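Researcher: I'd like a structural prediction for the single chain below. Treat it as a standalone chain; there are no partners to consider.
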Amino acid sequence: MAEGKEDPAVFSSTALPSDPRLLATVTNAYLGTRVYRDIFHVNGVYNGAVGDTHRADIPSPVNVRMVTAPDTENLAEIFTLNTRTGTFSHVLQLTDYTATQQIYAHRSLVHLMAFSITIRRLVHTTRPITVQLQTPFVPKSQDLDLNRGPDFQGAHYIYGKTLVPEVEGGPRPMVHMLWTPVPQALTLRGEERERSWEFLTAVAESEEEAKRSYSDGLAFVAAGALHSSHAHAWAALWRDSCVDLDGPLPLRQAIYGCLYYLLSAVPPRGNPGFLFHGISPGGLSNGTRGEDYWGHVFWDQDTWMFPNILLFYPEAARAILEYRIRTLEGALRNAQEQGYKGAKFPWESAATGREVCPEEIYGAQEIHVTGDVLMAFEQYYRTTQDQKLFREEGGWRLVDAVARYWCSRMVWSEEEQCYHIKDVMPPDEYHYRVDNSAYTNAVAQRSLIFAADLARDVFISVPEEWVDCAKKIKVPFDAEKKYHPEYDGYSPGEPVKQADVVLLGFPLMHPMSSEVRRNDLEMYEPVTELSGPAMTWSMFAVGWLELKEVQRAQSQLRKCFSNITEPFKIWVENSDGSGAVNFLTGMGGFLQAVIFGYTGFRITRSSLCFHPAFPDDIKELSITGISYVGNKLKFTITKEKMRIEVTECPLDPPASPLEAVLEESGQRFPLHEGQSISFPAVAGWIQRLPAE
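Model: Treating it as a single chain, here is the predicted structure.
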């Protein structure tokens, strides 16, 4: 789908950004770093107590850079992030040779980071060629008590525990690291035309795993297959999860960049060999003390990133939910300490599920996160029909605990004859200690409706209180102006920090007319902070696409581009460059505008709806790898036509046979593996084929 010849998935530059925060990241969900950074982070390894807990800094042996003398003549230098292969490269090109460094976090051998350097002679000489290396590595950490162990298969070895547990008496994770020693320079001898050197770093929470991973890496190096196996794993990832379009190059580049950074954050298919600890706003590459929210997990994961991951990789989405299940005990304690029943998920979560936000007000009041967590569980259940997670693996216990929390958090208003939720901070953090946040109350209502639905599906009796609270909770609505006030007492025109009420339409799909949906968008668009968090405008775009106001949607989506930095398409949280970097939250919102906005995809109780709409400068949209009840689907959409193909329909376990149904005509199209169907680009849905 090329507009011109430039590959939208490859980002190159002759210079690095002046702000090191904007360097490309290489991560694989277990290990992550920014290139040329002196530290890296490990999934789930935090140091510090409660509000001080942060990702533990581990010294990085891959922080190596090729350098030349300042007066080097005829030097051409290029830095490239190839998102297709998950590889960052640096090329020095001189008259008589090229030197290429490749840096990557191995996609399938997740305990490995590696870099290689290749020197290739360009002219027929026998002069030795030497490339100097900048190697500032020092095996020390402010967060771990590191000790030196004996060398292993030519690698140096250190190990140690984090210094301070998250909660008193809690675990202090162990880190074991082996790495290939790096010399100050590499030399291509006179008789050699080309040579490559490989440098490995293996990291694990046990000595045995670290050594096994290092040995595996050496075996791949000996077979000449270390980087190719990594690139192959990325190729498989892209085959199963790709969004592309025939349209403007900057939009295509933005999509590839967002997908690369988000897919880098999810565990590989199959048994990844580690417990996944969720996704923080800046990913594994960030999160040291005082940076990118210290690597904590927020609603950003469940609301902004999760829906994209779910549609492509239900297995990775399940790993996110399993993280929430494992931290349920902490959430139960949070609710108990605040005097409520059930489970209150923390505004900021790390390893235990206890509240680790450094500022008490957010943990106490921004309680919508509990509903956001449950909405992710609901979307997963509707899309996969995976009852095992709920029946056997702790999912139901979590759903039940969240429902009980919301019921205990509500108070009955005799005056209004409905339930209120008081003293909260809505997503719009400019306001706090408000009553009846529209978003908070609507997501609480949705939690209770889902809990009751799931209970019926798994043959558990539904507490009457859940039904009553869901039916009678107040969601503020101004009948005269026909819009949703953000909370009780909100005055039209008051500034808003970020997307809030507009989220009622999507992703909450709170029942409302098109007129009310439009009024909400028009009421809040002009008063929302222009330089606020990056995900905001994506949700306005989705709203306008829902109403088929395509140009208005595009004007909102274009605002996102001020959050994308060059040359490696790293997002910043705020358009002035402040806040978190590698801001996966903003990327997740942007991808939802494409994946859910342009297509009209909506996950409902029994179907995956579609109703496409996109602007004139997009001729065709192709989305490969959409997962629905076990099937893999490819959608190809133009303004006139939609084509759907079932690319996978597994037999073990058997996927549900599907059909497409058009809303207006009622036409039905059975979907069979390896076949495609086409019909006009109108509203409809995918559903399981009814049993005969």
